C-alpha cells in the first residue's frame, strides 16, 4: 500500500498509487508521490514515467477523513501543500508523464491528470471536481486543460463529472480502451516516446512547459488561497462534516446490503 515505482528494461518507470479502498491520498502520500515522480525524472535511466493506480479507481482526491480527525488546520495545510507538490512534480518532471486512468478520477486526481503529458483511460472512466460541495476550491486550473472554458465553468459550479469518451472527443484523452487493455495502451504510447533520443525529449518537455500559456502552479495556489478563506470563515468545516456524515451513512448502508463501499467519490 502507498506509492511504488519500478523501472523496466524499456527505460519506462511506472509509478503506482495504492491507497485502498478508493485511493484518497493522505497528506504524506501526496508528498511521497511528488518525491517519487521527481526522482524518476532525474534518473537518466528513465525516459518516460507512467502514473497509474491499483483498485477501483485512479484517484479520489485528498483523504477527508484525515482532516476530520485532526485538530486545527495542520491537515488542511499539509494536504494543500502536498497536492501542490505532487501536481508540480508531474508538470516539472524532466521526462513526459503518461497517466493511465481507471474508474473515477476526482478532486486531486484531476490535478495530476491535468498536468500530465499524455492521458489514456479505461472505458467508463470519469473525471470531476466535487470541491464546491466540500466547501473548497482547487484544480479548476487543471480541469481547464482537459475541457473548453465554458464546459470547465459548468462542471466546476455544478460539481458534475465528465466521461473519458467526451475528453477523447475534446482531444485531452489520447485513447479510451477496455479496462483490461489500459496498462498495455499506456505502455504502447510510453514506449513510442521512450524510443526517441532522451536528450531531445527532455529538452522538448522543458520547451513545451516554457511556452505554456498558463502558469499552472501559481494559478492553483491562487485557488487554494480561497479555500483557506472559506476554512477561516467556517464554511469548509460544515461541508466536510456533512460529507463525512453522508459517507458514513453510505458505508453503513452498503454493509447492510453485504457490499463494500468507501468514501471519497461523489
Automatic annotation (TrEMBL):
Residues 246-266 are annotated as: Disordered. Transmembrane segments: none annotated. It comes from the Bacteria. GO terms for biological process: fatty acid beta-oxidation. Keywords: Lipid metabolism, Lyase. GO terms for molecular function: lyase activity. InterPro entries: ClpP/crotonase-like_dom_sf (IPR029045), Enoyl-CoA_hydra/iso (IPR001753). CDD domains: crotonase-like. PANTHER family: (7AS)-7A-METHYL-1,5-DIOXO-2,3,5,6,7,7A-HEXAHYDRO-1H-INDENE-CARBOXYL-COA HYDROLASE, ENOYL-COA HYDRATASE-RELATED. Belongs to the enoyl-CoA hydratase/isomerase family. This is Enoyl-CoA hydratase. The lineage of its organism: Bacteria, Bacillati, Actinomycetota, Actinomycetes, Mycobacteriales.
Amino acid at each position: 500500500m502507498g506509492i511504488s515505482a519500478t523501472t523496466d528494461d524499456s527505460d519506462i518507470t511506472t509509478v503506482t498509487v495504492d491507497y485502498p479502498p478508493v485511493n484518497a491520498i493522505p497528506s504524506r502520500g501526496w508528498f511521497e508521490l511528488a518525491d517519487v515522480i521527481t526522482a524518476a525524472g532525474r534518473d537518466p535511466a528513465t525516459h518516460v514515467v507512467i502514473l497509474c493506480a491499483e483498485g477501483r479507481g485512479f484517484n479520489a482526491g485528498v483523504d477527508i477523513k484525515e482532516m476530520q480527525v485532526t485538530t486545527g488546520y495542520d491537515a488542511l495545510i499539509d494536504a494543500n501543500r502536498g497536492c501542490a507538490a505532487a501536481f508540480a512534480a508531474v508538470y516539472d518532471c524532466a521526462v513526459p508523464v503518461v497517466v493511465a486512468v481507471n474508474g473515477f478520477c476526482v478532486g486531486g486526481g484531476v490535478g495530476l491528470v491535468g498536468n500530465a503529458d499524455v492521458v489514456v483511460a479505461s472505458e467508463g472512466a470519469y473525471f470531476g471536481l466535487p470541491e464546491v460541495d466540500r466547501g473548497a476550491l482547487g484544480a479548476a486550473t487543471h480541469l481547464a486543460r482537459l475541457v473548453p472554458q465554458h464546459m470547465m465553468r459548468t462542471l466546476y459550479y455544478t460539481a458534475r463529472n465528465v466521461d473519458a469518451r467526451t475528453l477523447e472527443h475534446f482531444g485531452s484523452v489520447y485513447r479510451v480502451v477496455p479496462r483490461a487493455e489500459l496498462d498495455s495502451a499506456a505502455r504502447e504510447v510510453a514506449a513510442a516516446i521512450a524510443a526517441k533520443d532522451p536528450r531531445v525529449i527532455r529538452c522538448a518537455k522543458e520547451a513545451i512547459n516554457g511556452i505554456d500559456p498558463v502558469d499552472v502552479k501559481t494559478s492553483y495556489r491562487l485557488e487554494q488561497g480561497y479555500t483557506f478563506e472559506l476554512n477561516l470563515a467556517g464554511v469548509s468545516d460544515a461541508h466536510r462534516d456533512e460529507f463525512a456524515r453522508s459517507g458514513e451513512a453510505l458505508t453503513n448502508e452498503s454493509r447492510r446490503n453485504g457490499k463494500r463501499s468507501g468514501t471519497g467519490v461523489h
